[in-house]
Write a structure and sequence with these properties.
Layout: H1 16-30, E1 37-38, H2 50-63, H3 79-90, E2 102-105, H4 108-114, E3 125-129, H5 133-141, E4 148-149, E5 152-153, E6 157-160, E7 178-182, H6 194-207, E8 210-214, E9 240-245, H7 247-250, E10 258-261, E11 267-269, E12 275-277, H8 278-289, H9 295-302, H10 307-333, E13 337-340, E14 346-350, H11 355-366, E15 368-369, E16 371-372, E17 383-387, H12 392-406
Parallel strand pairs: 1-15, 3-6, 3-7, 7-8, 8-9
Antiparallel strand pairs: 2-10, 4-5, 9-10, 11-12, 13-14, 14-17, 16-17
The protein binds D-malate.
Length: 407
């Protein structure tokens, strides 16, 4: 008799964004005449930058000719893309990262979900609350938690991100091995200063722990005092892995391209207490379970780093930042307490009522989809998240409708 992985039975209902999509579909089926504006999931709405599209087309044409056709590529990504990433995203900022420390993949969601496979099932895991659900759910699936009690999984060290700490969690007061951090933060839109991040790096070094740093929203940073990468912090190479994505800066949510940075010094220990480098383990996993991102997609991603691509992606991000600014101004005018909306596409709003009730209210009365904060964890209860990823016109109309609904 085949037994299932019972850890899956511990998971809460469906994945947050699938649950929201189902509720919105039900609403639309009941009210086919109502137009819904989606400020829920952080999915981009604007076309890929022209530089990416041109590179994409050229690469597709290469695939149409035997002389330039390419079959399987290197699992880790083509050298042209890894080199461009290392130079532009890291070396240009003084972060010492080389091309062979970059692993190109089809998404930061997959990478942040899969990375935990490298570590022992008894690793003590610290996870922020509220949090992007993938970090938590994948640790539940792997069996690193007990059951779900009072809104939390037993065995996880939760790092509360609240108004009191400006949504930057304090260091845990118990030992941990694996630490998830995300800045600019999803879902709160909060940012971390260089000094605060240095405190985490020092803590990880002290604990022989590892930080999994999700920087998928780094392109939204406009305050140049803020770190774009954890590798700008001295000492991080031994204790950090970073995740990046082309989804939010260049609109690749449907095109799929991302990357993970694993420095050669990055370390974990075996049961005999010997140091083990993480880089070859991730390489082994990547080569075994992944066959690379398609050649045309990697050429399109490479074009992000051309002078035109840089200007166009900046313009794209500025467009969404203008939306974020508009949402933040409207929310402020309505008298809500909020964080985010600057250096981030997300606005995290204290609704002072149950998150799902607020979600229903905005959907019913305004036809606007938000993300209920409670879906991101216990500390998210009472909040909602609005995303700046939509057309400016829709964002303006959504905020007018919310104003009308709450009047
Ligand atoms: C979000 O809305 O939190 C993200 O867009 C989801 C994702 O990137 O997977």
């Amino acid at each position: 008799m085949l037994k299932i992985n019972e850890n899956y039975l511990k998971l809460q209902a469906s994945y947050l964004f699938s649950d929201i999509a189902r509720r919105v579909a039900d609403f639309q089926a009941k009210h086919p005449d109502r137009e819904v504006i989606k400020l829920g999931i952080g999915d981009v709405t604007r076309a890929l930058p022209p530089a990416c599209i041109e590179a994409f087309h050229r690469a597709v044409d290469e695939m149409a000719d035997d002389a330039t056709f390419r079959g399987y590529g290197p699992e880790q990504g083509y050298g042209f893309l890894r080199q461009a990433i290392a130079e532009h995203d890291f070396q240009a900022r003084g972060a010492e990262i080389s091309a062979d420390e970059i692993f190109v993949s089809d998404g930061a969601k997959c990478d942040t979900g899969n990375i935990q496979e490298l570590f022992s099932t008894d690793a003590r895991v610290a996870i922020p609350d509220p949090v992007y659900p993938v970090y938590l759910d994948t640790n539940v699936m792997a069996g690193r938690t007990g059951g779900f009690r009072d809104g939390r999984y037993q065995g996880i060290v939760y790092l509360d991100s609240t108004r009191e700490n400006d949504y930057v969690p304090a260091l845990p007061d118990e030992p941990v091995d694996l630490i998830y951090l995300c800045f600019p933060n999803n879902p709160t839109g909060s940012t971390i200063s260089r000094d605060q991040l240095a405190t985490w790096v020092d803590f990880a070094r002290d604990q022989k722990a590892l930080i999994l740093f999700d920087a998928a929203y780094e392109a939204f940073i406009r305050d140049e005092t803020l770190p774009h990468s954890i590798f700008e912090i001295p000492g991080a190479r031994e204790v950090a892995i970073e995740f990046r994505s082309f989804s939010k800066n260049a609109g690749f949510t449907g095109t799929r391209c991302a990357y993970t940075v694993v420095p050669k010094e990055c370390t974990a220990w075996d049961s005999a207490g010997n140091r083990q480098a993480v880089h070859p383990l991730w390489n082994r996993r990547h080569c075994t379970k992944f066959n690379g991102v398609s050649y045309p997609v990697q050429r399109a991603a490479e074009a992000v780093y051309s002078p035109e691509g840089q200007a166009q992606t900046r313009e794209l991000v500025d467009y969404y930042l203008r939306n974020a600014d508009h949402i933040a101004a409207a929310v402020k005018e309505l008298g809500f307490t909020f964080v985010g909306g600057a250096n981030s596409p997300y606005i995290w709003i204290w609704g002072d009522r149950d998150s799902w009730d607020f979600f229903d209210l905005l959907l019913d009365r305004a036809g606007v989809v938000c993300t209920p904060g409670a879906g991101f964890g216990k500390c998210g209860q009472g909040y909602i998240r609005l995303s700046a990823f939509n057309s400016h016109d829709n964002v303006v109309r959504a905020m007018e409708r919310i104003r009308g609904a709450l009047a």
